[in-house]
Amino acid sequence: MKLYYLNEFLGDIVNINVEGMWINAKIIPSKNIDKFNDFFSAIVDEENDFEETNYSEEWLDNSNWYIIDNENRKKGIYIPAVYPDGEISWRWR
User: Fold this and answer.
1) Among candidates 57, 60, 2, which has minimal Cα distance to 32?
2) At the top level of its lineage, which domain of life is listed (predicted)?
3) Where are the domains of the chain?
4) CB-side neighbour CA atoms (13 Å) of 53
């Protein structure tokens, strides 16, 4: 599987596990993901409130995030949680 934001490839997704409606995996990031590092850090930081006004409205639009599955099908997701250790979690839209 591959993670995309709009038409930008952000990384390969491997070692997929399903827990209820959440999908958890590892991401092998591409260089394109670097600009999202602060955004993802803020999303997963449970000790601080996420300030939407600090980020682009396009980044906050769930319709801009999707995964291309192993059969090359595009599947919409909600904004993924990408952790510093390479873990990724998401839900299908």
Assistant:
1) 2
2) Bacteria
3) 2-90
4) 1
Helix (H/G/I), strand (E/B), else coil: 50? coil
Strands 81-82 and 87-90: antiparallel
Neighbours of 40 (CB within 10 A): 18
Instruction: Output the CA torsion 58→60→64→66 (10° steps).
Output: 150
The label of the residue with tokens 């979690």 reads: 89
pLDDT band at 17 (very low <50, low <70, confident <90, very high): very high
> What backbone torsions phi and psi does residue 6 show, to the nearest 5 degrees?
50, -120
Distance CA 31, CA 72 (A): 21
Q: What is the pLDDT of residue 48?
A: 87
- Per-residue pLDDT reduced to its tens digit, 39-65: 999 999 989 889 999 999 999 999 999
Indicate the pTM of the whole model. Answer: 0.94
